[in-house]
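for the writeup, i need someone to sanity check this before i put it in the appendix. the sequnce is what the collaborator sent (i think, or maybe the updated version? ugh). structure was predicted straight from it, no edits. if anything looks off just tell me and ill rerun, i have time this weekend
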Amino acid sequence: MEFMPEHAPLTVIAFLGTALLLGVTTLVMLVAFLTKRKWIGLAAVILGLAFASGYVLVLAGVSLTSHEKTLAPGENKYFCEIDCHIAYSVVNFEEAKALGDEAHQTFPAGRFVIVRLKTWFDPSTISGHRGDSPLGPSPRRVVLVDDAAYPFPESAQGKAALARLGGGTIPLSQPLRPGESYVTDLVFDVPANARNLRLFVGDTFDVLDRLLIGHEDSFLHRKIYLALVPPASS
């Protein structure tokens, strides 16, 4: 299993702490210049730049030393939801040249790939005071990528065709209580020659995510993927 980001509480504390220090130094700088205490203002500017530079260096260093990872089917990728964690894993997948009954078939541009993704609220990750209230997972983005890391988003046509066949699927936003899980069917239209497909489940792009140390959406950070097939045995 892998956590995204690693050491999430420390990551958030580091970001909030740096933001607070920058806010304080900015306030000191403004007061100092308004009261014509230029040396104090200059010192506040230098201190603020030092805090910001240090944070950026750590952010870049962690990103540059990160490694791309691909988890085998059944292995969990965890996302921190403050006082608990939501885990995602691939159950199985299948391919189809068309979806629907004989009278109403939907054809892909390449081939349909249907991935069954499990969402699980891990009860071992909750704090002692949280209780059993439901949690709505944060918005996620899901794409398939091939061996060239080219992304393929979900197919709206494929999703609609699958819904007509099976009556729909559970959305990834469905709330869960601790210990609960559900499976979501995701449909992708990928080229016939796409190889070594992997699923990426991530946070939606957010400015905060880009600035969090160790977050896979931060600048230059490597990603964590979910494999569709087990690794070949040696």
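The chain has two domains: 2-64, 69-227. The mean pLDDT is 88.
thx in advance!!
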